[in-house]
Structures are given as structure tokens and as C-alpha cells.
Amino acid sequence: MHLPANPPILPMLAKRTEKLPAGKDWLFEPKWDGFRALIFRDGKEILIQSRDKKSLNRYFPELLKPLATDLPSRCVLDGEIVIAGKNGLDFDALQLRLHPAASRVKLLSEQTPASIVFFDLLSKGDRDLRETPFSLRRAALVKLLSHAAPPLHLTPNTPEHAVASDWFRRFEGAGLDGVMVKAKSGTYQPDKRVMYKVKHERDCDCVVAGFRWHKEGEGTAVGSLLLGLYDDAGVLQHVGVCASFTQQKRRDLVKYLAPYRKKARANHPWKSWNEEEAGAPKSRMPGGPSRWSQGKDLSWEPLRPELVLEVAYDHMQNHRFRHVAQFRRWRLDKKPQSCTYEQLEVVPPQELMKIFQPR
Question: Which sign, positive or negative, has the C-alpha torsion 61, 63, 68, 69?
Fold first, then answer.
């Protein structure tokens, strides 16, 4: 390719902030929860590049023809690949697309076709726009996509603080996990955290039913805690992990959890998920390893499900935390049986057709 902005280019990043900033210097957009992708087109050549510089072309073949049809012959855009279901964005379906078998990818591309939502323009023709203020890049992007049709979309954008606040509340049910904040005068800075993101955060009481050793401290430091919630049938379901501890906290947890390791395996509620390894010193992560583990050690140690932990989380999808939960405090005043899905706030799904503004 011979573009003003040639691949590979790392995408511009964002750092977290607690609230939407005031003032007239900002533009706001919904925060999409998908696969970040930079799109490079130079004539017949099209590259869908992931955030770690890898090609995604083979995993999303259904996007190549629309990109060739609706984009200019020479351009570079920044966006997010998503899969929209009837109840909003489906990240689990998106993960399934990273499959080694081409036949499987082809089938999934027909059953659950992907879309791409664009939110920045790095170059067009012979013009490198990375040093151009974002407000002007946005105007050029709107013009460039004025005749584009699904599965290509332009993200909503507003300078109005009140509108962005409404998006933050209303769009979550569609799987969007917050609001992006961009300076009107900002340039495009690859791999720099110069944007801001405001994400949802809630708290939840969970049962601690196991843990993983830290990768550099087996036997001396805890890496993460395995969390569970009871469903309507009274079954403890694995909902995610709590991590991001200080080194001292990791060491302290070894002593704190020691009493709950005694006789934990015998009647553990997740025992049926690893019957093939019964009697082994270690068992596999509930639900088994995924293609995302990439050789990582997913072994875990069971705990008697008697401890209750309050965690902070930003989004729940398909009955699991979408991201790693954060430790808040032990709840010794709570019984494990009180940790149910009923305590979670349910946000009604917002139809994606209401999010994608008609053009």
C-alpha cells in the first residue's frame, strides 16, 4: 500500500474519567463494545487491521465487499467491528468469529453477519489528516460516509452534554458500555491515551468459590478470585473474576483464604464441570478454556463457597461480567445464598436502529 498513513498503525487510545467534562471544547460519542479496527484501502487492496496490528480480513469476509463498494479508493478509517442481535450488541458472537477453520468463519459470517461503526478518519486520497483537529476530521468522515449503507455505519456524535448524558443512561441496554469524550481540537495520536471514556460502574455481592495463583507466585500470591451468583434454580453460576490486587494484597489473600480451602473439593458446586480431572491436584476453569486463553494456565483452586465479596463491575452480558470486576470489600454480614442475579440492575435493551442515525 502507498497511503499517507500506511499500515501498521496503532489506534489512538482513551483513559478513564469519572464524569463527562463540562464546557464547549468536547465532542461526545457512544462507546462501542466490539473489536477495534483500522481500515486501510488503496485501490483493490483492503486491510482490516486489529488493535495489535494483525489482519482481521479472514475472520470478517462479509465486510470486504461493502468496504470496497462504499469507501473511497484511497483512505484510512478508524472504527469498531460489532455484531448486532435483537437485544443489542453480542460480544460473545463476535468472539466466535476468531476461529481457525475458514468453513466455520464462512458459516458464522452468514448466520451472524458483522457491522462496522466508524468514528475517525486518518487519511483520504493523498491527504494525511492525523494532524487535523478532530472536529474537521469528523466533518470529513460524515461527508465520506454520506451514501454508505449497512453494514457500514457512522457513530452518533454530539457537542451537547445533556445528549451525551442521555446516551450514557439509555444506550447501555444495547451493549454499549459508556461514552467517549474527544477534544474538538485533538489530533490523531496513535497508541496515546489522549481521549477519555466514561464507563458504567455498579456494585454487586458475589460468592467467592475459588481462586487462581498469580503467574509469578504460585503458593505465595493469589492472582484472581472466581466469583459466582445463584440463579433461580439455586445453582451457583460462575460470573467472572476479581483481580488487580497489590502485591501485598495477593500475599495476604493466601492466608485469608487458607481456612476455606479445607475440604473444598468434595462438595464443590462446580465439581461437575471438571469430573474428568477428579482427584487431580488442580482442575480447569469453570466452563473450560477458550481460544482467548492462548496457552495460559487456567488452573484454579476451589474454595468452600462461604465468603461474600462486594465488587464493582461496569457491564454484564449473557449472565457474566463483561470485564474483570474490582475488589470493594468483604461482606461478612451477608450470607452466600443472598448473592443472586436479582440484585443486579437490569437495563432495558435499546434498539440499535435508534442508535444508528438515519442518513
Answer: positive
Catalytic residue at 31? yes
Dist. CA 268–CA 260, nearest whole Å: 11
Partnered with residue 36 across adjacent β-strands are 80
pLDDT in tens, 185-231: 999 999 999 999 998 778 889 999 999 999 887 889 999 999 999 99
Q: Which residues contact 292 (CB under 8 A, 6 or more apart)?
A: 95, 98
Are 328 and 341 contacting, i.e. CB atoms less than 8 angstroms apart?
Answer: no
202-343 placed in CATH 2.40.50.140: yes
**Could you say which DSSP state residue 346 is in?**
P
Coil, helix or strand at residue 149: coil
Q: How far apart are CA 39 and CA 103, in angstroms?
A: 24
* Given the residues 31, 184, 199, 271, the one annotated as active site: 31
Please say whether the beta carbons of 356 and 176 come within 8 A. Answer: no
- 151 cis-preceded (ω within 30 degrees of 0): yes
CATH fold match for the domains 13-200 and 202-343: no
The domain locations on the chain are 13-200, 202-343
All three cell numbers of 19: 464524569
Question: What amino acid is encoded at 54 in this protein?
Answer: K
Q: Distance between CA 287 and CA 94 in Å, rounded?
A: 18
Q: Which residue has the cell 459470517?
A: 109
Residue 44 neighbours by CB under 8 Å, 6+ apart:
68
**How big is the chain by its Cα radius of gyration, in Å?**
23
C-alpha–C-alpha distance, residues 30 and 79, integer Å: 12
CATH number for the domain running over 13-200: 3.30.470.30
C-alpha closest to that of 82 among 106, 62, 68 = 62
First and final C-alpha spacing in the chain: 31
The dihedral built from the CA positions of residue 119, 168, 340 and 234, taken in this order, carries a sign that is negative
Task: Render pLDDT for 286-343 as a digit per residue (tens, 0 to 9).
Answer: 544 444 344 455 688 999 999 999 998 877 777 888 888 999 889 887 899 989 988 8
Residue with cell 476461529: 99
Tell me how far apart the alpha carbons of residues 7 and 126 are, in angstroms, rounded to a whole number. Answer: 15
Lookup: cell for 202? 455498579
Q: DSSP character for 234? A: S
